[in-house]
Queue: 2 jobs
Job 1
Amino acid sequence: MDSRLTGPTRFFPRRLALGTAALSLIAASVFSQMTLADDANTTGLAVTPTEVTVGQLHSATGTMAISETGSIQAERLAIDQINASGGILGRQIKIVQEDGASDWPTFAEKARKLLVNDKVATVFGCWTSASRKAVLPVFEKENGLLYYPTFYEGLEQSKNVIYTGQEATQQILASLDWIAKTKGAKTFYLIGSDYIWPRTSMKIARKHIENVLHGTVVGEDYYPLGNTQFGSLINKVKLKKPDVVFAAVVGGSNVAFYKQLKAAGVDSTKQTLLTLSVTEDELLGIGGENMKGFYASMKYFQSLDNPNNKAFVEAFKAKYGKDSVMGDVTQAAYLGPWLWKAAVEKAGSFDVDKVVAASPGIELKTAPEGYVKIHENHHLWSKTRIGEVQADGQFKVVYESELIEPNPFPKGYQ
Amino acid sequence: MEWLSEFGAIAAMQGFNGLSVFCVLLLMALGLAIIFGQMGVINMAHGEFLTIGAYTTYMLSTLVQTWCPWMQPYYFFFAIALSFVVAGAIGWVVEWVMISRLYHRPLDTLLATWGLSLVMQQAFRSIFGAREVSANPPEWLMGAVNLTDAIEIPRNGLFVMGLTVLMTGGIFLMLYRTRWGLHVRATVQNRIMSRAVGINTRKVDRMTFALGCGVAGVAGAAFTTIGSTGPTAGSLYIVDTFLVVVFGGAASLFGTIASAFAIAQTQSLSEFFMSGSMAKVLTLSIVILILLMRPQGLFASKVRK
């Protein structure tokens, strides 16, 4: 018994070298009163017989708070529910929340704080690709574990990250196929904000349109983040008359883009539009009536009709008010704690290496989006859905794909 | 021949777009032109005063919707007036508490108002939530006017245009036809002399700053029809605003108008022929080149010593 009890610090002195000797000794004295901890935790994580500490790292302030608030709420909801049903391996989950403040160096600094000082067992966090890229080296160096909720451009795979949103090909290919088939679309106009996610997404879209659908891209335009004037662009669209406008405009630009489209008389009766960047969250700002009849491609919509989702929507509204909305990323963030729980229980341990090893193949049949499974490449198998915008700010699901394999490094699309 | 008429229609709409961008730029720059141009205060929180106007409109829109829906078609005019009052009042307080202590340290106003803008952004976030909200514009402001089958003119563009003309005219009248305007211009030219002849320069400063903020509030209210309303919405406009005022020549209202027109036309036209990002690069390059040759801006006039 004795040799096991001192295990966490004696056998893994690496943390001592980080200058936290005193803390570790106190921790060791705490550990000496444990009976359960050591089996489940051999790497000095903040795990006691009754409690496991996890980190939450999103922007609660700054420009990105608009988007990340939903993720913070969803992760808290999932953790509350897990705690209410008995926790993980008999332990309640305690959250240490840090604010990335929409600033990428702050994200890296807070990630290090969570992993080194708080010794959290896992982190649920980040939203933008920029913040993920900023924390990635920290997670790889300290061997932490990150659950990342946003749909993103792909071209990345790390041992230390589980991606619970869709990578670009999952989101794009099936929806382009659908719109080409049902609308007979041949000509496309690609529009995006000017940074990595829209550019990578449009690159994939262009290859698919030209090589697979044998259609034409009649225009491709990028606008700076925060651009608020889209008049010239709208005139160009009117001139080129594409069958489909394919859009990935984000942030404040998003609202301006759709309000001005509507004002210029471009609505769904005259123009088919498919977007990658509008969820229920964005519709709050845009206003449903400004986008009525346009399509969005996501893996989740709040209006999905299945028992899992009904329970999720109900629980979310009970906790955060009846007017709250749940977008794609909010749901993906909700999956994080549940996927982690399943992996920890399968591994019988909180150790990052063991949890990571146990993750591929983990299934979640209770996901609001239906069913997901973790792929070897740490992304999720998921369905893609097309939602049609309704005036009340919700989507009507008009198409649902088969389960799509995640492929973050798509051949022929780069 | 069909393509020719279509080309004509696009050209007409594109021309209108240029004018519309011009009015948007001018409207957002007017308040700053008063504060920066007339008072020499670098107000980095200008964008946040726009946001105050936007949120005022949003609140009034929500109130009207819940309490008296029959007001819906008319509330927007009240919203604009109220935005002017609210933003102006907050500006008045800000001048009294902060700016008035910094007149002899113009560069420090830059830092102080930058800090103020951060405080205000977080205040919006705490009060209204981090998410963007949407004010319901009245029905008559939505959609387009069809001049012919092919030419569609956005109604909110027309509205912003009208409002800009009205505001610009009003400010000109106030500055050049009223006693208060005389006092402002006198203070700009020579503060000590103005005080010596009995002008209460403190009061003039406070009113000028409040007026500038109020005008920003009006712009914010109008922009709810074309842009987003969120805690950081104001920061989308701040760069363009400074660009217009500095390029025009800080102390000249005519300069602001000319510069807004030049920038809007360059931007609108180049966007039609190249990608939005490249158009921005081109516009900024031209502005920098001209400023290199004419550092005082398009129209220079005397600045407060």
Job 2
Amino acid sequence: MSDFVIFAVFFAALAILNLIRVAMGPTPADRQVAGDSADILITAALILFSLYSGRAVYLDIAVIAAMLGIIDTMLVGRYLDRGRWHYDADSDHS
Amino acid sequence: MQKAKFPAIAATFVLCFGFWILLDFSFKPQELIAGAVVSLLVALFSARFFIHEKAGWFCNPLRLFSAIFYWCGTFIAELVKANVDMAKRCFGGCRNINPGIVKIPVDLKSDYGQAALANSITMTPGTITLDIAEDKDGKTWYYIHWIDVVTAEPEKAGEIIKGRLERGIRRFWE
Amino acid sequence: MLIRIIADLLLLIGAVFALAGTIGILKMPDTFSRMQASTCVSTLAILCVGLGALLYAIFTMHSASAAVKIAVIVLMIFVTNPVGSHAIAKGAYRAGFRPEKRMEVDEFRRDFDE
């Protein structure tokens, strides 16, 4: 039973290592990619910790974290793309 | 914006109701009725944004089984192979890389098929689809960032990157 | 007991791939290569962790709702992650971030002349 919590702590430590790249990344894309990766690692840690403690609350939080991880990535991607939601190859490139 | 047809509404309703059951996971009749009402409202309002082509495409069992075989067999095999390759590069000090952007031709016609192929290419580590463009002759091209450029010629690079994936997808989405 | 050993083995494989992805994110030289390395975390690592947890939830805990929720989490990450990856790669290229060195072939710049 206790190996789940060991793996959960390991994944959480990897997420904290990803935060180093969030802090020192030279471009916004680097920060967002590392933050998304940390989000997925935290989801894995939540799954394992819910199996360790036997409470279903952590699984619900993991579902919501997996669902909301996409939205900020899309938002930052479109912001870097300067708000072009519908890109047409034949229109202006400016 | 075209008008929503009945199969699109039915498919959206089934998806929303399944998601309600997954999140709720209790089978009392009042909760099932509430979920059905909410799913029906959501399906009526949002089916036209959600499904654009034929909604009953997967009701054919042959297509369904070939799709399941693709996602559980071919795709997982390619995924494991590419992941082992990427992990070797990462543990080897991140120095033996040769990145570049190549352009490959794609023969799939349907929108969903093109989207599925682009997502499959992005999911395998080592390749990311940057853009999909169509030239004057109606031929579709993908722009792909590849971490180890072996060849820059479009057909050969396409065969290396997406050969098995495209043959797998063509069985159920032409 | 066999189920526990298989689940632990899957978790170990997932941890190894997550470590590989994290090392890649920390040490790769340019932006796009870091994106490639982060794909390693979000595909095989989460797949192995989900499979191990699914085996444990089905055969040891006998809990249907936990198994279904874990399956939904893995499926949702698999469906939504390539869309975000694609969006942020294209946005980063269009915002003017270029790879630093050894850009072998650059067809994108030639066709869209940016």
